[in-house]
Amino acid sequence: MTEDDTQTFDSTVYYDEDADEEAIAQKTVAVLGYGSQGHAHAQNLSESGVDVIVGLREDSSSRSAAESDGLRVETPADAATEADIVSVLVPDTVQPDVYENAVEPNLDAGDTLQFAHGFNIHYNQIQPPEDVDVTMVAPKSPGHLVRRNYENDEGTPGLLAVYQDATGDAHDEGLAYAAAIGCTRAGVVETSFREETETDLFGEQAVLCGGVTSLVKQGYETLVDAGYSPEMAYFECLNELKLIVDLMYEGGLGEMWDSVSDTAEYGGLTQGDVVVDEHARENMEEVLEKVQNGEFAREWISENQAGRPSYTQLRTAEKNHEIEAVGEELRGLFAWQDEGEEDEEESAEVTA
Ligand code: NAD
Ligand code: MG
Questions:
Q1: What is the pTM of this model?
Q2: Would you say the CB of residue 62 lies under 6 angstroms from ligand 1?
Q3: Binding site residues for Mg(2+), as ranges?
Q4: Alpha-carbon distance 145 to 163, whole Å?
Q5: CATH, domain range 13-191
C-alpha cells in the first residue's frame, strides 16, 4: 500500500511490493475461456510460474491456439476439478451455464472462484457455496494489451475485489493473481463487486459506448439535415473525436482545452452544457437507477433468454445508419489510419 499525501482519492492502490506471489505459487489455476482476457491471463500466469490449465469445450476452436501457446487444455469440468482457483473468463452471458454445468459440481471447500467482471455475482446469476473464496481481478484494458504489456515488462492497471473470504486468504491470493498477470506493475485499485459492476455498466451506457455514439449521430444528423455535406459532418462529428479524446487521455480536460483554439475553447465552454444539459443529467440518473435496482440486468438476462430479438434489431439499425456508409467510404479514400493499429485490433479477436 502506498500512502501519498498528494492523492485526492481515498482508494487503496497496490503495487508489486505489496503482493506476495507465494500466495499463488503453489496453486493450480483453471482459466475457463481463451478469448480476450482468457488468453492473456493464462499466458501471463504461466510465465509467472503458476500452474495453468485452460478449460475449453471439446469443440472449441480456441483449443489449438491455447495448445500452440504451450498451455495444457482440458474440458472446463476437468480443469475446474484439478484447480484450486477457477478463473471464469468465458463471456458474461454464458458464465451461469458454464458455472452450473462445469464448475459448481467440481468446487472443493477452500477453492477460489475468480472473475474479471462482477455482473453474475452481483446480480445473483451465480451463487457460490459459502466455503469458497470469491475474488475479482479486472484489468482495466482489453486482453491483448494485458498480454502485450506483460511481454514488454510493463503493467496494466487493474481492480481487485473480494466478495467472499472463506479461507481468510482471499485478498492475498487475489493480489498475487493480479501481480502474476502484471497488474501490480501499474497499480491495482481496491473496489467491491457492486462498485465495479455498477460503475462499469453506467459508464458504458451513459458515456463511453451509448452516450458518445448518440452524441456523434445527433451531431452528424443536425449538420446533414441543415444541408451540409455528409463528408464534412463525418469529419467534424466522428473522425476528430479521436484527436480530442487522445488529448483528454494524455492530460485530462485541461490538456485538451489548452490544445484547441481559444475560439473552440470559448464555444465549447459556453455551448457544451447547452447541448448536454440538465435533462441529460436527469436521464443519466435514471440510467444509473436501472443499473442499481437490477432493472437493466433483468432486461438483459431475459433478452438473452429470448434469443436476443431487440438486440439483433438495434444492431442492424445501428449498422444501417448513414454515418457508417459515409465513414467506410471516407476511410477508404484517405490513408490516415495507422495500419499497425489495425493489425493489432484484428489479432485481438480470438473467437470461440
Ligand atoms: P471473449 O468473448 O473474448 O472470450 C470468451 C472465450 O470464452 C471465447 O474465446 C471461448 O474461448 C470461450 N467460450 C465462449 N463460449 C463458451 C462456452 N459456452 N463454454 C465455454 N467456453 C466458451 O470474453 P472476454 O471479453 O475475454 O470476457 C471474459 C470476462 O472478462 C468477462 O467477464 C468480461 O466482462 C471480462 N472483461 C473483459 C474485458 C475485455 O476487454 N474484453 C475487460 C475486462 C474484463
Ligand atoms: Mg477444485
A1: 0.91
A2: yes
A3: 200, 204, 236, 240
A4: 26
A5: 3.40.50.720
